[in-house]
Backbone:
């Protein structure tokens, strides 16, 4: 194995990355020996944060788009490590991302890699979204560019040509391409900061918050949570829409996702501001648990949307004065009509979204890194555990558990690489000593041979002189 791949592994465990493991010539074609493939992780499935998947890549010529059941036998044969983790390559198009990845999972794949079908598209900016049926998928998937995908497919063609002289039963056993999927999170210290970008009308986000309360308190003082308000700008909207769904001349707008559409965008934005004000107040007073209790209450009490009266009841339930929170909401406007005046809270949130937002919502951001995968309490709890520099006891049983997927931890990967490097270094030192000793032996033997030949010549000359001497 080329030593450059060892360095790549150390440099690549910063966030989710896809790297060419072998062959070395493909690494050079992809990124000048670096081998890192530009990619985007899907926003569904189970992402094994803190771990890496190394596997042989499989490609089914008869099912290029992955929209049908795979006909080839996908196994762990040809994997470079002891953990069978086949990676399946498919092309984008003809069916949803979710269907492709589910077919890969059913065929035994540990990860799906999807080749984009749009030339020149920046894949890091493409979000592979859930089509509504991806909650049961247990493997990760990544999107790569059409250009890089073509290079991998060309490598498969070269391997196919190289096997033409082999017997039928000898073909396909050797891995043509091997990839590494690395899924790590930044872990600068022993406290994880995580945000949730959401809007109070989003049922998925509210379901998540309701489910995640118990998980949040498992971490105790080890985490810091910030709810983030999502809104969008619509300055070019019609006047009727601006009056109904926006504040500040269309700078901050919301639209209802409820089927009945009972709440206007302004109603939703107002509740978003109430939740933000409530959290700021309770977190400052070290009573954040009552914010979670409020979310639980209004989520159950108001299935069709959180109205002002519903919010009031929720505040009464946690013994917070509704008028105090309403005053905070009112004070966040600079004055005058809410239709035209600036809002300090929404302005701050909009700036944060512009600078550091994950570009999709609802979205969890962990240590400034956008979480990808199915938004469930279990998955996010596991991901947050990987964000600690030193894992707290609350994460016991989660960190390093590889029963749910085929792969190895990033820490184990580093240990393996360090071990291999150390072995290679020892072998190099031993070889150099052996080579030096052999050279010395050769020199001694050559010197000994030269001396022996010299004495043999001297003896021969003496014998000839004795034969010529008189009287003998």
Residues:
């Amino acid at each position: 194995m080329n030593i450059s791949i060892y360095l790549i592994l150390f440099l690549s465990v910063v966030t989710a990355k896809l790297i060419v493991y072998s062959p070395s010539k493909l690494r050079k074609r992809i990124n000048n020996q670096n081998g890192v493939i530009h990619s985007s992780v899907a926003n569904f499935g189970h992402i094994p944060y803190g771990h890496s998947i190394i596997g042989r890549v499989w490609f089914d010529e008869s099912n290029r788009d992955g929209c049908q059941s795979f006909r080839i036998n996908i196994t762990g044969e040809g994997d470079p490590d002891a953990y069978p983790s086949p990676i399946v390559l498919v092309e984008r198009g003809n069916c949803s991302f979710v269907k492709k990845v589910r077919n890969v999972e059913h065929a035994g794949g540990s990860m799906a890699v999807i080749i984009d079908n749009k030339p020149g598209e920046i894949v890091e900016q493409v979000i592979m979204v859930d089509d509504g049926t991806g909650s049961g998928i247990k493997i990760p998937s990544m999107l790569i560019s059409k250009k890089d995908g073509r290079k991998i497919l060309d490598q498969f063609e070269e391997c196919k040509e190289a096997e033409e002289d082999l017997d039928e039963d000898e073909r396909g056993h050797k891995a043509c391409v091997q990839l590494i999927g690395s899924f790590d999170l930044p872990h600068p210290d022993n406290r994880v900061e995580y945000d949730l970008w959401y809007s109070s009308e989003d049922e998925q986000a509210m379901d998540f918050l309701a489910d995640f309360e118990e998980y949040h308190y498992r971490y105790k003082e080890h985490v810091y949570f910030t709810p983030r308000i999502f809104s969008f700008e619509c300055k070019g909207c019609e006047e009727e829409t601006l009056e109904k769904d926006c504040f500040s001349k269309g700078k901050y707008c919301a639209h209802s996702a409820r089927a009945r559409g009972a709440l206007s965008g302004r109603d939703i934005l107002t509740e978003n501001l109430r939740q933000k004000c409530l959290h700021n107040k309770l977190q400052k007073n070290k009573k954040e648990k009552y914010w979670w209790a409020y979310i639980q209450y209004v989520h159950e009490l108001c299935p069709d949307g959180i109205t002002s009266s519903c919010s009031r009841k929720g505040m009464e339930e946690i013994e917070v004065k509704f008028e105090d929170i309403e005053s905070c909401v009112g004070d966040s406007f600079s004055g005058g009509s809410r239709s035209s005046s600036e809002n300090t809270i929404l302005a701050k949130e909009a700036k944060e979204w512009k600078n550091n937002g994950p570009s999709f919502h609802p979205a969890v951001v962990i240590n400034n890194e956008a979480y990808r995968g199915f938004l469930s309490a279990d998955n996010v709890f596991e991901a947050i555990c990987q964000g600690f520099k030193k894992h707290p006891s609350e994460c016991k049983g989660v960190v390093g558990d590889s029963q749910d997927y085929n792969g190895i931890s990033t820490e184990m990967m580093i240990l393996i690489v360090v071990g291999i490097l150390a072995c290679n270094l020892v072998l190099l030192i031993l070889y150099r000593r052996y080579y030096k000793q052999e050279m010395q032996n050769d020199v001694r033997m050559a010197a000994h041979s030269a001396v022996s030949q010299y004495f043999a010549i001297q003896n021969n000359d003496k014998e000839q002189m004795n034969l010529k001497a008189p009287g003998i």
